Amino acid sequence: MTLRWGIVTAGRISHDFVNAFNSYPDKEDQEIVAVAARNKSRAADFAKTHGIPKVFDSYEAMAKSNDIDVAYIGSLNSEHYELSILFLENGKHVLCEKPFCLNAKQTRSVISLAKKKKLFVMEAVWTRFSPAYADLEKDIKNGKLGDIKFIEADFGIVSPDDRSTHIKEYGGGAILDVGVYVLQLPQFVWKEDPKRITTVGSLYDSGVDLTETIILEYEGGKRAVLNIHTQQEFWNKATIYGTKGHVTLEQPFQFPHIVIDIDGSTKNYPLHSSKLPYNFTNSPGLVYQALEVGRCIRAGLIESPRMTHDESMGLALLEDIIRKQLGVHFDADDKEYPW
């Protein structure tokens, strides 16, 4: 049976997701059949660009329809919680863009509802499905790097003034907008929670974080130093240091096409080509998370073993702590959530 996707919102990341999906040669019996946006003309234009047959003028109409099986949510951060709940309550599986939600309470609520409904839900941390990361995981497991003691990762961009990154009401800020990329790396490598978290940074006038340096300390003297910026371009690479040597994930480290191996050799991970341009670097790789969703749903799973519910909860709790250390507070932090 074909797995039918509905695209929730017609923004830049949704464009890249659909472009990556449609241009991939083997989608394993999946197709994108619908798009919804609050502005129907924008949704119609999006559908025309991508050859999507059905257009909805509201998220509620799509959620209640029988036309889709799984929703890809690419909305503003502040809408992730309510839209995830809407589609789960109406019996749809969900792939929600990062950050999963604004805080750990919302994240726990979404995961609990998915378990109650026996539906698949996953935070779209596409990094976890990168072929480069799959090879890195094998190297770590077989001891190629020895004992890993130190990780450094940098992610810096210049976010234009009209982007949601600057706006508190939209769930903006560096840690929620791009921070998941640096935070997920030590989680991926060490698969444990840090015992100490130290953050220094600065805020926009709106009250959300502009930049931060995060030091995560783990048992056995392990440490990760992570730098994030939304008004400065960095060389967005990451290096993992072990007792036998180090591996560097070249820019963009969140989905690298070049890796410098422990012996200094270069590994290349080419991406498939697309007719339409992309908004973000290496976005063809977004298709791999869609393939994972399809495999998991067909196997009757409600979470991916490569990006688990517990890992999303761990990231959300880290993000909460970092925001608190910087003094970033959302109205959503004062509320309680069901399930």
TrEMBL record:
It catalyses: D-xylose + NADP(+) = D-xylono-1,5-lactone + NADPH + H(+); (1R,2R)-1,2-dihydrobenzene-1,2-diol + NADP(+) = catechol + NADPH + H(+). Keywords: Oxidoreductase. Residues 3-122 form the Gfo/Idh/MocA-like oxidoreductase N-terminal domain. It comes from the Eukaryota. The keyword Oxidoreductase applies. This is Trans-1,2-dihydrobenzene-1,2-diol dehydrogenase. The keyword Flavoprotein does not apply. InterPro entries: Gfo/Idh/MocA-like_OxRdtase_N, Gfo/Idh/MocA_domain, GFO_IDH_MocA-like_dom, NAD(P)-bd_dom_sf. Belongs to the Gfo/Idh/MocA family. It comes from Heliothis virescens (Tobacco budworm moth). It is an enzyme of class 1 (oxidoreductase). GO terms for molecular function: D-xylose 1-dehydrogenase (NADP+) activity; nucleotide binding; trans-1,2-dihydrobenzene-1,2-diol dehydrogenase activity. Gene3D superfamilies: Dihydrodipicolinate Reductase, domain 2, NAD(P)-binding Rossmann-like Domain. Residues 136-247 form the GFO/IDH/MocA-like oxidoreductase domain.
